[in-house]
Write a structure and sequence with these properties.
By secondary structure, chain A is of the alpha/beta class. Helix content of chain A is 28%, strand content 28%. Chain A contains seven helices and ten strands. Chain B is globular. Chain B has two domains: 60 residues, no CATH class; 196 residues, no CATH class.
Chain lengths: 217, 262
């Protein structure tokens, strides 16, 4: 599903990612750990095409990260960030629906009941659907972003510290929804024990390099 | 009948009113004397030069000379709008066509169908109308471009998430564009709403001083305001649209190097 080979990335001569290679099979649930500044988020940003690597290749479902493959790749991935950003004056339903107005996603527009079922499963009150995003707590916003990501029905989820804003009582439910889906390939940056326990693969990074890859039996 | 001439002595009396401002600056101990002198000196010299070459342009009244002069005005306005919106001049060739189409198109429409001067390219119509359209378009485009690119820059993470969810540049920019558009249009609408009540526009005042009846001056003013509105609308939207090619990379992400302070 995800294949990274000999990836190197530097900013102003400073190497951030050094010779990274690994593969994830479809359905694999991997987490990346490591201290701050070891290049984890930069690696994600390189996977989504925000950074252009100096050398090496990234392939998603056999497609190289190149401009001509962009639409196909973006129909396969979903990047959920640590901090959920909403446009000013946006309501929760506008926040969730907005990406489904994109030409690439119009065919999968979910109906209201699909969304509200996710609300129930993620312990979000249904009335929040019409609330302003600015009125929601960090954890509620984060759960909205995860719901939106799941509704997009992508094959690969890139999750950057998604559990930090979610309170412990809801964290398990939300993570189970992602980690128990056999068809979904997940790669998550985390320091969270709950996520580390749920993952099938743990990739440790140190100073821009992969220190170890542990695959649980 | 034209407006009564103003003599040198009367001009000096007019400039003497600046002494009030100089006194205020000294009293408040605000060190802006040099800026005040520079600004008013520049304004005087620039207007004297304009007066000088406009008298030649009006005298020769040639279509090509008029068009050349308007193109120079557009280039100056384009330079100024990029400088004041915090963007690099490398966007010049991307935003220039927006003024060319917005101003040129509206000028041609109103000249050919509304003003109908004789000859059609009469400099007395073309140049001042183009100047008014350009000045207003430049101001609105500055606000819109500045707000548009800065709001994406400030919310880069939010923008990135939209692009990675499959949004094209034109789809993902839309919320930011709507905010920038509202910011750009607000002063124009506020200004229009108070015209006649709070302010008498310069053109109308000039026409009345030049001997036109108030009703003729008002009709011209209404037409000019409509022309200004539609020219600013077209040129502002096109400036954003044309700048996208330079402002975003092949992956749809914002190019931070377009900002002057990058």
């Amino acid at each position: 599903m995800l294949k990274i080979e000999k990836l190197n990335f530097a900013i102003n001569g400073k190497e951030i990612i050094k010779d990274i290679s690994f593969k994830l099979k479809p359905g694999e649930k991997a987490v990346i750990t490591g201290e701050s500044g070891t290049g984890k988020t930069t690696l994600f940003r390189t996977i989504i095409g925000l950074h252009k690597p100096q050398t090496g290749t990234i392939e998603i479902d056999g497609l190289k990260i190149e401009a001509q493959n962009l639409d196909k790749i973006r129909q396969r991935i979903c990047y959920i960030q640590q901090e959920t950003r909403a446009i000013p004056d946006q309501t929760a339903h506008e926040f969730i629906y907005f990406p489904f107005t994109f030409k690439n996603n119009r065919h999968i527009k979910p109906d209201r009941e699909d969304i509200l079922e996710y609300f129930d499963r993620f312990n979000l009150k249904r009335k929040l659907f019409d609330s302003q995003m600015t009125d929601l707590s960090g954890g509620e916003k984060q759960r909205m972003a995860i719901i939106r990501g799941l509704l997009l029905k992508r094959k690969l989820i890139l999750a950057d510290e998604i559990s930090t804003a979610i309170d412990p009582s809801n964290k398990e439910k939300v993570l189970d929804e992602i980690f128990n889906d056999k068809d979904l390939t997940v790669i998550a940056i985390t320091h969270d024990e709950t996520l580390l326990n749920k993952a099938s693969t743990i990739i440790s990074m140190e100073s821009g390099k992969i220190a170890s890859i542990e695959r649980k039996q | 009948m034209g407006a009564q001439d103003i003599g040198i002595f009367e001009l000096i009396i007019a400039y003497a009113t600046l002494l009030i401002s100089i006194g205020i600056l000294r009293f408040l101990k605000i060190n802006l004397f040099k800026d005040l002198v520079t600004s008013f000196s520049r304004m005087t010299i620039q207007l004297l030069l304009v007066g000088l070459y406009l008298s030649y342009i009006f005298k020769y009244n040639s279509l090509w000379l008029n068009c050349l002069y308007i193109l120079i005005m557009m280039a100056a306005a384009n330079h100024s709008l990029l400088k004041n919106s915090g963007l690099k001049l490398q966007l010049f060739s991307f935003t220039f066509p927006s003024l060319l189409i917005g101003i040129g198109g509206v000028l041609a429409y109103f000249t050919l169908l509304v003003f109908k001067p004789e000859p059609m390219y009469d400099a007395k119509y073309m140049i001042p109308v183009a100047g008014m359209l350009l000045g207003n378009s430049m101001n609105r485009t500055i606000v819109t471009l500045e707000r548009f690119y800065n709001s994406i820059k400030q919310d880069n993470e939010g923008y990135v998430s939209l692009v990675t969810m499959g949004g094209s540049v034109s789809e993902s920019i839309m919320p930011y564009f709507r905010t920038a558009y509202k910011a750009g249009i607000a002063p124009t609408l506020a200004n229009f709403a108070t015209i006649g009540l709070v302010s008498l526009p310069g053109m109308m005042t000039g026409q009345i001083l030049g001997g036109s009846t108030p009703m003729v001056a008002i009709k011209y003013q209404i037409v000019i305001l409509l022309a200004i509105y539609i020219a600013t609308e077209i040129s502002t939207i096109l400036a954003v649209l044309f700048s996208l090619k330079r402002g975003f990379n092949r992956f749809g992400f914002l190019r931070h190097e377009i900002f002057k302070n990058s």
